[in-house]
Amino acid sequence: MGVVIIDGSTVRDFVNDEARFKKSVDETFSKLDLNNDGVLSRSELRKAFETLRLIETHFGVDVATQPEELSNLYDSIFDKFDCDRSGTVDLEEYRSELKMILLAIADGLGSSPIQMALEDDDQGFIKQAADLEASKLSQKPSSAGP
């Protein structure tokens, strides 16, 4: 487990790095597209969001959530991603919605840094944003004198 320090600019810089963001989203989309048909079904997108356990925990403690409540939540998320109401989510819809979600997270974080614990093997968007910032910091020349 590792700890990263991020703020809104960390996430915003990741989203604004179009090549890196696009590559990351495309890779995630491909992993979610289990049948390789180029679109995400309701069940494929639900499986992804189930791993986030959006309302099943409260500060790390499991809480009982009614199956109907979970279904309603995941259906509403799918409907938000399915912009053209085709019954599937294509790559552009997925990328557009993730961009809006991450920018909303960035706005919520603001400029106050927070510490966030992440699994070492985590390759989520927040971890990738933190890694991008760390790589930028390691490339800056040191201003320390002799």
Describe this structure in words.
The protein has 146 residues and is of the alpha+beta class. Helices cover 56% and strands 12% of the residues. The chain has six helices and six strands; from the N terminus they run E-H-H-E-H-E-E-H-E-H-E-H. The strands form three sheets. The protein has a two-stranded antiparallel ribbon. A hairpin with a 2-residue loop joins strand 3 and strand 4. Helix 1 packs across helix 6 and helix 3 crosses helix 4. The radius of gyration is 17 Å and the shape is globular. The termini are far apart. The mean pLDDT is 85.
TL;DR of this structure?
This protein is 56% helix and 12% strand. Keywords: Calcium.
Label this structure with key terms.
146 residues; alpha+beta; two-stranded antiparallel sheet; 6 helices; 56% helix; EF_Hand_1_Ca_BS; calcium ion binding; EF-hand-dom_pair
Low-pLDDT runs: none
Largest sheet: 2 strands, antiparallel
Mean pLDDT: 85
- Compute the number of helices: 6
Number of strands: 6
Rounded radius of gyration (Å) = 17 Å
Helix and strand element order: EHHEHEEHEHEH
Classify the secondary structure makeup into a structural class.
alpha+beta
Fraction of helical residues: 55-70%
Query: How much of the residues is beta strand, in percent?
Result: 5-15%
- What is the overall shape? globular
**Order of the strands making up the biggest sheet:** 1-6
Separation of the first and last Cα atoms: 36 Å
Topology:
Blueprint: E1 2-6, H1 8-16, H2 18-32, E2 39-40, H3 42-50, E3 57-58, E4 61-62, H4 67-81, E5 89-90, H5 91-109, E6 114-118, H6 125-139
Antiparallel strand pairs: 1-6, 2-5, 3-4
